[in-house]
Design goal:
mainly alpha
């Protein structure tokens, strides 16, 4: 992955984190920084998964890659929220 890919993954990760948080119903007990970090990780892992599945580079918008990334972000937000709520 090139440096431009990493920078775009960070920018997209911010968006993915917010979208992942919006997918989860109710109020989450984590801050926006955690949401952004989860989004960045989800974007990087989602891009790797999409690349492994062969759906990372399509004509137009890579909707499948976005869906994978948003789903991973939603799972990450829910997991961290549950971990913080159980404390």
């Amino acid at each position: 992955m090139e440096i431009s890919g990493i920078i775009s993954a960070i920018v997209i990760g911010i968006i993915i984190g917010v979208l992942g948080r919006l997918v989860i119903p109710g109020r989450q007990h984590i801050g926006i920084i955690w949401t952004i970090l989860i989004g960045i990780v989800a974007a990087l892992i989602g891009a790797a998964i999409a690349n492994a599945l062969g759906v990372a580079h399509t004509k137009g918008v890579d909707w499948i890659e976005w869906l994978i990334q948003i789903a991973l972000a939603a799972v990450g937000v829910a997991a961290l929220d549950r971990a913080k709520a159980s404390r």
